[in-house]
Structure formats: structure tokens, C-alpha cells
Amino acid sequence: MYPIPIRIIPDTNLVESRPDSKYFFSKIFLDAIAPQEGLEKRVLLADITAKEIIFHKVNRALSNYEKLSNALEVLRTWSGRDLTSPLSREELFSDIQRRFIDARNDAGFSPLPTPFNDINWEQIVDDAVWRRAPFEGTGMPEDANEKGFRDSIFVETTLATIRKEPASYWYILTRDQKIIEKLKGDALLTSDDSKVEFVETIEEFAGKIKMLVAEYEAMAVKLLPGIAQSLFFNSANSTGLWVDQKIFSKIIKSFQKEIEAPPGVLEHPLESEFKRGLATIYALSQVSWNKRQDNRMFSIGTRFVRKEGDGRIKWATRIDIYTMFERGSTIFTAASAIDTLIRQISIDVFWSSKAAILVLSDPTFIGMDFAGSRNIGASFSNCLRLGFQSPLGIGLANDYALPPYPFTSSISQIPLPITDIPPA
Question: Is the alpha carbon torsion for 1, 49, 17, 23 positive or negative?
Fold first, then answer.
């Protein structure tokens, strides 16, 4: 769904330049359909529209051609020289067709062939006879303004094209009310889940695009953090900023002391609730801890920090680092005493990305902050389950179950490779 698929089918009256312009397409229209980040804009130019634009240019060129021929004839008469037109009518027509195709390609328009096999010709004949939209006129002999065949082909081409890609956002640009009336009569374009808009001016089209972008930006507030998390580290293929910027090495270099230092008395998770005298604190102080396993790192989520002035978004990804320590024996410990401890260090990694609606790109590392630490000794909080035997005979020994390693919480954790080389 990203980027947003925008499909534009313009009628002649909104895409064609002024009659006296040397260009084929309106500059206002070209500016309105200019590329935008997050939007996949495609202009589909119906063959009937292209031929009508060519016809108008050829017709005007032939009018000027006649004026040139007449002027040359006058000059020939006055001067007595043999003056002839520099090109033929056929060459003029061929040159205009070629230049139109070049202009269409330069503008990035996709040609939309007339779907002859899909057109209901019987319906077009009936509409023409009974002057139903998009046909106009009274049918009376004195009515010289009957029209509608070219508009019918435009309508049929539009319907056949939308049926092939109903999930895209479609914008039909036309001022012709008969064309709009005919298109709105089709159930495909008026259903509740239809994404078809009818636009009568370029300004209205620009406004509708802004509204669509605003809707997606509102949705982005909820969806972008999840997208950013994948940009930071994609666990499916082990790619992202984590690997590209070697953030593992940066963390180890910046916070090695905090990660490797063994637990101390005041850090003990149960010490604040375990105040039973100097003997207990003394016993705890005699404990020595040794690192038992390598570090484990997890990304537990990416949060929005702020939108920068240059259009980028600043993010903070929380990294939890777990280190398991094993306690050495002392004369104060009982067999059932706690012998394993997990140290959790939290680091905020700050980075930014380029943002366009629901599309993020160009992740850039900014820096890191220490976000705190805690020791995890058990999956329960009752301090009497420490399983400790004090020298004063205060018996507190109970069964102790070590939580799973790595420690898991209610927050979704994504394992991170603890090396700068992504796993095979």
C-alpha cells in the first residue's frame, strides 16, 4: 500500500494547453501532477484524448499553414520569384504526431489504448439515438450541436481501466457534466468502497490530494513506530541501521563498564525490601559474582521523539542488554540460596529517518543515552523467597525458581545479533 497509488485520467479540457501555446499540455496540470514523496502518481492518457489534442494542434497548424501559403503566393506575385511552402501538409501532420509522442513520454504519461473488445457498442448506439449522457442534442434537424461519441469512448476507456485496478485511488479530471453523469451511473464507481473522485478543476484536484495525504499522516501516528522498528532492525533478513551502523560495537565501547560490572549490595533487587539487620547486609556484601554467559541484546520498541525542521523524524529505540552472573560460594550461604542473577541494562539509541507519509527511508545514527539498569533475581517479588541463611540463624530458605533466560517481559522483544556481521 506504500507508496499511495494515485491514478489520474484527464479529459481534454483539463490536460490540454491553450490553443495558442506551443506546448501540448497545460503547465498548471503538469505542476499539479509533479512527483511527491509517498505518492505513486500515474497519469493515464486515453487514446481518444491524445488524438483529440493532436487534432486541435493539427487543425490550428493547418490554419497557419494556409495563411503562410497565401502569404507566399502574394510574395511570389510581387517578386516574380518561385516561392513555395517549406513543407507539405502530410509532413506537418507527421511532425506534430511525433512531437506529441515525445511530449507525452517526457511528461511521464502512460498511453491508455481504447479497449475496443470491451466496449458495449450496442449501448453506445442506443445512447446516441436517445441522446442519453454523454450524448447531447435534441435530435431536431435544426440542432447542429449534437455530440457525444468521443466522450462515450472516453467513458468506456475509463471504466475498463478502473476495473483492472480497483484498489488504487482514481481521479477523473473533467469539466464535462455529461461524462460525470454517465460515469456515476456505473455501480463500480459509486459503491461504498469506491476510491474514485471526480474533479472539475486543477485546484480541486490539488486540494483532494492534500486531504488524502492528511488522512494518511493521521494514520501514520499509529503505524510509523512499527515501520521505524523494522528500519532499525529487520529480523526477517537481519538488515537495518543496527547492522549498517555497527551499533553493537558502539554500545559495547560506550557502556562496557555498566554491562560487565558484577552486581553489588546496593544493586540487589531485593535489598530494599530486605532490611533485617546488619548481619544480613554483611552476608550479602560477601557475595562475589562471575559472568556466566555472553550478553544478550533485545530491541523492545521504537518510539517517536520529535519531527525535525528538515522534515526528518527523530526516533529512540530502547535496547535491553542482559548479562547472567553466577554467585561464588561463601561461608554464609545455604544450599538453597540464590546463585544466579541477571543484569538488565537499558540503552536508548537515537536515530533519524526521512519521512514521507507512511514511507521511511535513509536511517541515520545520532547517538546513545544510558537509560537505567536493574537486576532480575526471580519472576516473583516476594523478598522472603530469597533463599538466604544468615549467620544469626534467621532462616529464610525457600524454594527458588530462576526465570527463563533471556528474561522475558510483557513487552515484545526482538533478538539482536551481538556481532557486527549479520548471521547467514
Answer: positive
One-letter amino acid identity for 364?
A: T
Which residue has cell 476507456? Answer: 157
pLDDT at 12: 92
Give the position of cell 535489598. 271
Q: Which residue has the cell 442506443?
A: 126
Q: Compute the distance between CA of residue 329 and CA of residue 243 in angstroms, rounded to an integer.
A: 40
158 within 8 A of 183, measured Cβ to Cβ: yes
pLDDT value for 371: 73
How long is the chain? 424
Contact 297, 319 (CB under 8 A): yes
Mode of pairing for the β-strands spanning 4-10 and 169-173: parallel
pLDDT of residue 82: 72
pLDDT for res 215: 76
Closest CA to 168 of 281, 411, 5: 5
Q: What is the CA radius of gyration of the chain?
A: 37
- Antiparallel, parallel or unpaired: β 39-46 and 4-10: parallel
Contact 28, 15 (CB under 8 A): no
Q: Which residues, listed in sequence order, are joined to residue 348 by a DSSP beta bridge?
A: 318, 369
Residue 319 corresponds to which cell in the numbers above?
Answer: 535496547
Quote the CA–CA distance of 161 and 45 in Å, as a whole number. Answer: 11
Query: Which residue numbers in the chain have pLDDT < 70?
Result: 1-2, 83, 85-86, 137-146, 217, 220-221, 262-295, 309, 327-341, 356-359, 372-424
* DSSP structural state of residue 385: G
Q: Are 114 and 106 spatial neighbours (Cβ–Cβ below 8 Å)?
A: no
The answer to whether 348 and 318 have CB atoms below 8 angstroms apart is yes
Residue 146: predicted pLDDT:
60
Question: CA-CA distance, 199 to 202, in Å (whole number)?
Answer: 8
